[in-house]
């Protein structure tokens, strides 16, 4: 049933192909490069163009300016290595729209990519390299609950050796009982608990007043008694042996003898 059905023809992207004819390469020059490009085996050449009509009539290529339709022209020459041929649609002797450019380098024909293809290729290449770099960097990251995130390059020998060399050159660092990550986490948890359960304010004024009232029911008499007791303590003296047995009005023995 499927014998008469033809498979669909898949057109290959012209940007991925190239063409050359080894017999023409040694004798290629600006005079015959258009004939070289017009070979039947060239996949970039469209045989329905005006160049083929002029070629069949054996006329000069200058006749293309008086015709309308698709044509090929020699745009740039850098003999003997580079030739640029443009495919365009001509509307009048002075008006033509470019369709594609082809460049011949060392006898090999390539189609020049358009600006959108160049941008897409560069963007895809950039995204690919960035994704590869991110994947490789993430493969070296490690996480520990007490230390947080760190990097382990032991799988990569070059990076591991470089890290070891830098570690040997650096001065030894004193180990702390706790890391910055731990202290920050503890401070955050304590602050959260303090906001949820605030500490009660101490009532120091009321306690001091109540204690004073309990020790002194009579008010300010305590201060006066304390002041009097302190004065009594300051003027109190121990009696000496010579003053024992004498009254307050008795004179010293020396003065009695003089009288």
Report a brief summary of the structure.
This protein is of the alpha+beta class.
Please give a structural write-up.
39% of the residues lie in helices and 17% in strands. The chain has helices at residues 33-37, 50-56, 115-139, 157-169, 180-196, 204-215, 221-235, 253-258, and strands at residues 69-78, 82-92, 95-105, 108-111, 141-144, 148-151. The strands form 2 sheets. It has a 4-stranded antiparallel beta sheet. The longest helix is centred in the middle third of the chain and has 25 residues, at 115-139. It is elongated. The N and C termini lie far apart (172 Å). Mean pLDDT is 76; it is low at 6-10, 218-236, 241-245 and 255-259.
If strands are numbered along the chain, what order do they take across the biggest sheet? 1-2-3-4
Poorly predicted runs are 6-10, 218-236, 241-245, 255-259
Query: Beta-strand percentage?
Result: 15-25%
What is the CA–CA distance across the termini? 172 Å
Number of strands: 6
Shape designation: elongated
